[in-house]
Amino acid sequence: MKSVQNIIFYFLVILSFIQCKKETKIESTIAVSKNEIQYAKGFEIYKHPGFSILKITNSWPEAAAIFTYILQEKNGIIPDSLKQFTVIPIPIKSIVVTSTTHIPALELLGVENTLKGFPSTDYISSEKTRKLIDAGKVREVGVNENLNTEILIDMKPEVIVSFGLNNSNPTLDNLQKSGLKVMLNGDWTEQSPLGRAEWIKFFGAIYGLDSKANTIFSEIVATYNSTLALAKKATTKPTVLSGAMYQEQWYVPQGESWAALFLKDAQSQYLWSKTKGTGSLSVPFEIVLEKAKNADFWIAPGDFSSLKQMSDSNPHYNQFASFKNKKVYSYAVNKGAKGGIIYFEWSSTRPDLVLKDLITIFHPELLPNHKLFFFQKLK
After folding, report:
1. Residue from 275, 266, 274, 333 nearest 301 by CA
2. 3-class DSSP state for residue 306?
3. Alpha-carbon distances of 264 from 94, 203, 363, rounded to whole Å
């Protein structure tokens, strides 16, 4: 799955910052309602007559701050105790998003035409949204580290959806001071496959399409769970290596990470599954070679798209049995028209397809008719 170089690449192309009002105690006069979110740990939605309360509870790893947004329906009355928070009239009709992981939700909800701006549009791989870009309907708004304030103020999108890596978020301060609505989205912090996919409900809420988002997500859950049940019929558990070298170190997904959980659900023996943590682990090459030299499969070897490219980069890769036996599978082969990697864009929203791919690789007899979607065998 994702090695550290992929994570660094990912953040470089989608990095942006945001500053929102921190949550204070909400008056008890507001009726108690049930949190609509089941799997995700990073956000909550509470429905009330005329409005919803959307809380971002884990905007970055170990975040202490909670960010609250009030989604106001037409003619909805907002209690005075909630007016201290950012109030967003819904359904919104124009948006700027800053991560490619946000694009699938817009498309699945059928609101991609409301996308007005994106930083570094070349990274968007989806054909549907690329047509909008090519038609000039989606403007470049700079890069996430340096968003073009003048363009965004001129565009006046109803909402800018961004994310932060810590509590220092100066980049979008001026936009908020100019009256633009900025929302935090922490989908990338989720570690469970279904938890990350559930963030489609975030977009469903701001577009007033909760029912549609719930239906889409329920279908993904059903497919994932039925595929998971099928995987349990496997009679073998092949050993798996992941990651690649980066600056003299090999980075592998830690055992509690999003990537490692997929390997577990696909009934494989990921060789670093016992490690603690949700990020990447730095391991000396010699240790990796000793432990994984005879691994059956090699999944996600960085951004390489061919075996030759791998061996040209590092001849030591030839020492692994999975390389020699041509059992190396990469997500970097399938790219959009401008080079954006489809896996980075769609895997969060469609974990069911990720799981199907891995089961097809490890246990092809269980899914004989599945055509690989994200991962491809390197040639």
Report:
1. 333
2. coil
3. 40, 29, 13
Would you state the structure tokens that stand for residue 203, as one six-digit string?
């977009």
Q: How far apart are the first and last CA of the chain?
A: 18
Q: What is the dihedral of CA 183, 215, 335, 376, to 10 degrees?
A: 130
DSSP state of 341: B
Contact of 82 with 148, CB cutoff 8 Å: no
Instruction: Report d(CA 250, CA 283) in Å as an integer.
Output: 5
Cα distance between residue 239 and residue 292, in whole Å: 8
36's tokens: 């609509």
Place of tokens 């990020």: 279
Q: What whole-number distance in Å separates Cα of residue 303 and Cα of residue 292?
A: 20
Note the pLDDT tens digit of each residue in 255-271.
999 999 999 999 999 99
Q: Tell me: the pLDDT tens digits for 289-301?
A: 999 999 999 999 9
pLDDT in tens, 211-225: 999 999 999 999 999
